[in-house]
Write a structure and sequence with these properties.
Shape: globular
Strand order of the largest sheet: 6-7-8-3-9-10
Number of helices: 12
Radius of gyration: 21 Å
Distance between the termini: 53 Å
Number of strands: 10
Helix content: 25-40%
Order of helices and strands: EEEHEEHEHHHEHEHEEHHHHH
Strand content: 15-25%
Bound molecules: adenosine-5'-diphosphate, magnesium ion
Largest sheet: 6 strands, mixed
CATH superfamily of the largest domain: P-loop containing nucleotide triphosphate hydrolases
CATH class of the largest domain: Alpha Beta
Structural class: alpha/beta
Mean pLDDT: 81
C-alpha cells in the first residue's frame, strides 16, 4: 500500500453542499509528485469548487483533503500558511498588483514570506522571470503587457517560493489559440524542469491532451473517469460505428472530449456562474501574508541568506551576501 509521501494531494470521499445543492458528491482523487493532473467537466460541475478545497479556501462537509499527508481542515492558521508556501496558484490574468512592476510583483512574495536580503531577492526574481521567458519585462507594469505576458508574470509569481504543486484554473481562458498553446508548452516545460505537480482545471480539450499525464472527468459532482491521458484519447477517437459498445458514461465522456454539440451532455448544461476576479476565493492579502503592499526591501538576515546561497550554489562564495551584510 502506498504511503503518504507517494501523493502530494489526497482527496477522500469529499462531499460539498451549497444550501440544497450537492456540488461535490463523494470525490476521490490523488495526485502524485511531479505529475500533471487535468480536471475536466462541463460548466458548473464543480471544478473550481474542487480546486478551492485543494488550496484550503473551502472545507468539506464530509470527507478529507490532505496536502503532503496532512488534513487541511485540521490545520491551524499558522500551519495552513506554512502549507500555502508549498503551492502556487495561477490566477486568471495573473491577478497582478497594477501599481507594481512585473519584477516587484514577484519580489513582493519573496519579501513577505522569506528573510532573504534584497540582492538575493532581485536575483531570485530574475530566475523566476527567466523561467517564464519574461526577463525583459521586469520593469514593465501590468497595464503595459499583453494577456499572455500577464499569465506568465502570474506564473512567475506563483513560482516565487519554489512550490511543490501549482494550481491553475482555466489557464488559457481569454487567450488566443497561439498564446494559449504557448502557455501549455510553458506548463509542460516547468513541470519537467522543476518537477512540480500541476493540477489544471480546463475545458479546452487541446490543452488538456497536450499537458495531462492523467485526467479526471467530473460530472454531477462525481469523478466519472480517472485515468491516464492515453485512455481518454482512445475514447475521444472511438469510431462512430462502434458506439454501441460504450456505456452511457463513456458516451458522455466521448462527447465532451470531442466537443460535440449533440449528445447526453447537451441536456445537462447548467450555465457557468460569473467568473470572479479572484478565481479560487483567496484574496491577495492571503497570498502576501495579510500585510500591506510595500516595496521596501527587508533588512537582511546574514546567516539565513548565506545558507540559502550555499544551497543554490554549493562551494561558491557569495558577493551578494557580503554587500547585504554591510547594512545593520
Ligand atoms: N460559494 C458558493 N455558494 C453557492 N454556490 C456556489 C458557490 N460556489 C460555487 N457554487 C455553485 O456550485 C456549482 C459549481 O461551481 P464551480 O465549482 O464554480 O463550477 P465550475 O468551475 O466547474 O464551472 C455551481 O452551480 C455554482 O453556482
Ligand atoms: Mg470554474
Amino acid at each position: 500500500m502506498p504511503n503518504d509521501q507517494d501523493y502530494v494531494i489526497e482527496i477522500e470521499d469529499l462531499v460539498k453542499r451549497f444550501g440544497d445543492q450537492t456540488v461535490l458528491d463523494g470525490i476521490n482523487l490523488k495526485v502524485k509528485p511531479g505529475e500533471t493532473m487535468v480536471i475536466m467537466g462541463g460548466s458548473g460541475c464543480g471544478k473550481s469548487t474542487l480546486l478551492r478545497h485543494m488550496v484550503g479556501s473551502l472545507h468539506p462537509d464530509e470527507g478529507r483533503v490532505k496536502l503532503f499527508g496532512e488534513v487541511l481542515a485540521d490545520m491551524t492558521d499558522e500551519q495552513l500558511d506554512e502549507t500555502r508556501k508549498k503551492f502556487g496558484i495561477l490566477f486568471q490574468s495573473g491577478a497582478l498588483f497594477q501599481s507594481l512592476s512585473v519584477g516587484d510583483n514577484v519580489g513582493l512574495i519573496l519579501e513577505e514570506h522569506t528573510d532573504l536580503d534584497a540582492a538575493i531577492i532581485d536575483f531570485m526574481v530574475k530566475i523566476k522571470l527567466e523561467l517564464v521567458d519574461l526577463r525583459e519585462a521586469s520593469h514593465k507594469f501590468p497595464a503595459q503587457i499583453s494577456g499572455g505576458m500577464k499569465k506568465r508574470a502570474g506564473l512567475a509569481r506563483a513560482l516565487a517560493l519554489d512550490p511543490k504543486i501549482l494550481f491553475y484554473d482555466e489557464p488559457s481562458a481569454g487567450l488566443d489559440p497561439v498564446t494559449s498553446a504557448a502557455i501549455d508548452r510553458l506548463i509542460i516545460d516547468l513541470t519537467n524542469k522543476l518537477g512540480v505537480a500541476s493540477v489544471v482545471v480546463t475545458h479546452e480539450m487541446d490543452s488538456a491532451f497536450a499537458i495531462a499525464d492523467r485526467m479526471a472527468m467530473l460530472n454531477k459532482g462525481r469523478v466519472l473517469m480517472l485515468d491516464e491521458c492515453k485512455a481518454f484519447e482512445v475514447l475521444r477517437d472511438w469510431p462512430e460505428d462502434r458506439l454501441d459498445e460504450l456505456d452511457e458514461n463513456r458516451l458522455l465522456i466521448r462527447q465532451f472530449l470531442r466537443g460535440d454539440a449533440e449528445g447526453p451532455l447537451t441536456e445537462e448544461a447548467t450555465g457557468e456562474s460569473s467568473y470572479a476576479a479572484d478565481l479560487l476565493g483567496i484574496d491577495n492579502s492571503k497570498l502576501t501574508g495579510g500585510r500591506s503592499i510595500q516595496t521596501t526591501r527587508r533588512v537582511p538576515v546574514p546567516g539565513r541568506t548565506r545558507g540559502f546561497f550555499k544551497r543554490l550554489f554549493p562551494g561558491k562564495t557569495n558577493d551578494l551576501t557580503k554587500s547585504g551584510q554591510n547594512k545593520p
